[in-house]
Amino acid sequence: MIKYTDFFxxxxxxQEAPIAALFMSYGFDAELFEKHILPNLLGIIGNxxxxxxxxxxxxxxxxxxxxxxxxxxxxxxxxxxxxxYDHITVSDHTFHPKCYLLLYETYLxxxxxxxxLTKAGLCYNAETIWYEDIRQDDSVTNTISKNLVEILxxxxxxxxxxxxxxxxxxxxFLEKSQFRNDFPKLVSTxxxxxxxxxxxxEIKNLKEECKALSILSPFYENDRDRALEKSLLLEFVDQFxxxxxxxxxxxxxxxxxxxxxxxxxxxxPVTIFRELCGRFNDIELYVIHREWEREDDEPIPRTLHAKxxxxxxxxxxxxxxxxxxxxxxxxxxxxIESLRNIEVGILEYGKIKFEFPQTIRVKVNELFYxxxxxxxxxxxxxxxxxxxxxxxxxxxxxxxxxxxxxxxxNQIIYESDMIQETITIQPFQLKRSQDLxxxxxxxxxxxxxQIVNKQDYESEDVKLSFELKVRDIIDYLAGKYxxxxxxxxxxxxxxxxGQDSTGGLNVYFRHNLQRYYKAMSxxxxxxxxxxxxxxxxxxxxxNPIGLKNLIHMIIEDYQNGDAxxxxxxxxxxxxxxxxxxLRFQEDRLEKEYKEQVxxxxxxxxxxxxxxxxxxxxxxxxxxxDVLLKTYGLEVR
Length: 636
Known about the structure:
The chain has 636 residues and is an alpha/beta fold. The protein folds into 4 domains: 7-181, Endonuclease, Chain A; 186-369, Endonuclease, Chain A; 383-456, Sandwich (Immunoglobulin-like); 463-631, no CATH class. 35% of the residues lie in helices and 22% in strands. The chain has an 8-stranded mixed beta sheet with strand order 10-20-18-17-11-12-14-21. The chain has a 6-stranded mixed beta sheet with strand order 3-2-1-5-6-7, covered by helices on one side. Strands 27-24-23-30 form a 4-stranded mixed beta sheet, with no helix packed on it. Helix 16 packs antiparallel against helix 17 (565-580). It is globular.
């Protein structure tokens, strides 16, 4: 929050390709996840806007190799999933953790924060982000693996996902790591003790004199229908004051105030604040305005979403709780035997340099409680699961009370006003959308489709069952086709009409040269974008519709006599010109490394280009000379 850590930098593939990933979030934006998070994690080059086919194919192929799972709250999911990763929604509790686990061969990156997988959470809000890399090394220990394993095993059993590939891989890695009991500690509501109890025990066990306690939260128990003596905040402060009567209590919360206003509008519990200040004379209230000062001194609007409880001790040490836990009863009081919210936080201790953002100290009479308008209609997510096995879709329901209809791809596929337990739809064909839309009279919700034997299922994005040829790759790079099915359709038409789709490069060359120039421009852009590991760079070059395969096919057509000397010469010279004049963007790879890899790939094409040049005569050689001189390429 203070150092403006970039979440996307933390999930970038750097030295190693990921083995598995498990994301746990309250809110989930499928479009953000698929267009930005997945490409960062999987080392995908380019984006959907440049060339949708290439982008989707790369992501889909990677997902067949790397298991990715998302768990999110069922009431906060609004659909939009289009790739074959596992998505499980939770409806029996408020699923509120923001914990992201990225597994590599030698380490597991654990990210615990207050940020959801949404545009607001990752791009606009003021959030906290904590991370640590757990390594499998006898000489390296960690302090969070034991609790993390307990949480994941509980979730696997509770949600029936013990056999989920990503979950199993992460648990297997954690169980082999070396655990020690120390700070930082993982805190969660999946425990015999609530966060409320756990936090007080940790403070007491430190046996240090506490001089101040700070509570920062965007959400507190509100003033409506709350008896003051039952307030979480009052009880928390009372208990803390009994332990440390001289310690100050500082309470932070977001506020809005226009230039001509005399009071701050807040959703914090003003009545409870008034009661607190009446009981104790050392309660300090601070508002955090939406205008924040960034590191470059430019003020920007940010919505406060971070949650922090910080105890400061006389020895200059701090105990800091951050993560997903708001200062509410549902979050602070939950535990296994009375579970309301599923939360995950991190507890740090030591001489930590940590400062709150710019704040303004206020008095209670400067605050005006503004009750947020909320939709009181409760969404009942009554679909437990939707499982696709081959062409049979089985939908299990629980707690359904009213008529509903099921939509898929904007078409109604089922409608009923009867209470039932199971719906079977057969045959069911999975298309681009991976979600069902359940529509009731006054509300709607989305349910992710789970696919049995997902690894054996071939989506449109990975269908490369037909034999690729030069023109297919060129069309792909040039962005002509937006789906693999279109290429397949054209190939079928050519076959029916007796056309030769494997050769005929001569005709293709003369009629479609402009498309090849577009393909080379696309190739140039793809090679110049940043790469964060050698693996990612080599994967891009080795893609079935990438540079290495295109070169191989051009050479193969030339050697088989399916392409003339002149056409092959121009193809190779254009490609050589692109490679020779690349301007690499700055990344973690050495420029010399990239140049050497490309030089190795181009060694054979350059030799063939020179061979064709030697065989050329008269006017053709003169044309070759002009081209080579213009591009600044070596003649011999």
